[in-house]
Amino acid sequence: MAKVAVEKTAVFVWEGKDRRGHKTQGEATSTSSALVKAQLRKQGINPTRVKKKSASLFASKGKKITPFDIAVFTRQMATMMKAGVPLVQSFDIVADGLENENLRNLVLEIKHEVASGNSFAGALAKHPRYFDDLFCNLVDSGEKSGALESMLDRLAMYLEKTETLKKKIKKAMTYPIAVLCIAFIVTGILLIKVVPQFQEIFQGFGADLPAFTLMVIALSEAIQESWYYIVAGLALIIFAFKEAKVRSKAFAESLDRGILKAPIVGPILHNAAVARFARVLSTTFAAGVPLVDALESVAGATGNSVFSKAVLKIRDDVSAGTQLQYSMKQADIFPAMAIQLTSIGEESGALDDMLGKVADHYEAEVDDAVDNLTALMEPMIMAVLGVLVGGLIVAMYLPIFQLGQAV
User: Fold this and answer.
1) In a 10 Å sphere around its CB, with 0-12 CB exposed, 13-18 middle and 19+ buried, how is residue 160 labelled?
2) Digit-coded pLDDT (tens) for 274-299
3) What average pLDDT does range 135-150 have in this prediction?
4) Which class for 176: exposed (0-12), middle (13-18), buried (19 or more C-beta within 10 A)?
5) Which among 104, 20, 17, 43 has a CA at the least distance from the CA of 35?
6) CB 74 within 8 A of CB 151
7) 330 pLDDT exceeds 60?
8) What does the alpha-carbon distance between residue 152 and residue 282 come to, in Å, rounded to a whole number?
9) CB under 8 Å, gap of 24 or more: what pairs does 333-338 form?
10) In degrees to the nearest 10, what's the CA dihedral of 210, 213, 218, 223?
11) The pLDDT of residue 61 is above 70
12) CB 194: neighbour CB atoms within 10 A?
């Protein structure tokens, strides 16, 4: 689809007089002051002053538009369309109810494009940061087939389930990482600030210190001397890791492969990738997209390079006449249940429904696994905290206990 330049919209402040001569004022979002004046005249208002709203020096840029915001926007548009509200009017109604100013401006930009005669899919394609090729292609299919409302409903369901799954996995990963980071920060503070105080006290004992205490003191001295090297080294490692993941395709693939084989987390991410594969393929195939084209869209939506390569290989096999379920079996990364349900769907002519059942099943598997992992991680995290902090406290008080026993 050809890229088209987009006119940036802005907020204009206007003043004018209505038909009765009363002064009135307000704000309007448009691409130019001339368009604002034309819109006001259509409403029976004679504009006397229209100027672009100046941004305050300390004004915030507004909230970032997240994938979940796009899911909410899609659901609201689907609801409006199902209720029989015209497309352009639906944009106004949805925009009025949005609290995120950036999202509201995005919706109004899309509305302006559609009102100017562009297609809905074409307007969305001008914002690739928020609407990927899959989204635009499905909306385009809905417009051409005359089933835009049902397509938006399917898209909304797909986005909601995908974002819920991502949020669930992210929550399971974020909690232990955050707690462990705090634990290491607290440990570092104890080693840098508290242990040296005990060390000064121990110097007046005139007795040999326990080996455990000596080890902690040596660790404290090493950290005090080179903590900045440690921090810089960690920052460098994190930066290098991110850059390598972006710049090196081989590194990203080996990382994705290793994550899938990791204990505990690996099976969760594997099932999540299977669920995404089935959900996207079900949505695109139900929209009337040919299976080969649908598989190409699915390859970029699995979220793992191992699955992406496997899906592209399946696409090539299917285009050569091989059955989908047989190609999935040859890929050797799909569970037996997913392959069996796909086989039933192909034979019965209800492939989209069966793939939807596959997605539902593995999304539920991921939900249960994440809940179990969260429950399991809490006592493990407490144990790690106890070992780190408790170990330091025991190391510092051990000489005092021994001195008390000697007295």
Assistant:
1) middle
2) 988 888 888 888 777 788 888 887 87
3) 80
4) middle
5) 43
6) no
7) yes
8) 14
9) 333/270, 333/306, 333/307, 334/274, 334/277, 335/271, 335/274, 335/362, 337/361, 338/274, 338/278, 338/362
10) 180
11) no
12) 14
Rounded CA separation 311/324 (Å):
10
The per-residue pLDDT of the chain, averaged, comes to: 81
d(CA 108, CA 92): 7
| Backbone phi and psi for residue 381, each to the nearest 5 degrees, phi listed first | -65, -40
Give the pair of three-digit tokens for residue 241.
């890791």
**Residue the block writes with tokens 């709203």:** 53
Structure tokens at 22: 């009363």
246 pLDDT above the threshold of 80: no
On whether the CB atoms of residues 18 and 45 are closer than 8 A, the answer is yes
Beta-carbon contacts of 174 under 8 Å, excluding residues fewer than 6 positions away, are none
Taking the alpha carbons of 119, 122, 126, 131 in that order, is the dihedral positive or negative? positive
CB contact at 8 A, 338 and 236 = no
pTM flag (> 0.85): no
Q: Check whether 2 has a pLDDT greater than 60.
A: no
Per-residue pLDDT for 18 more than 70?
yes
Q: Which of 131, 90, 148 is nearest to 1 (CA)?
A: 131
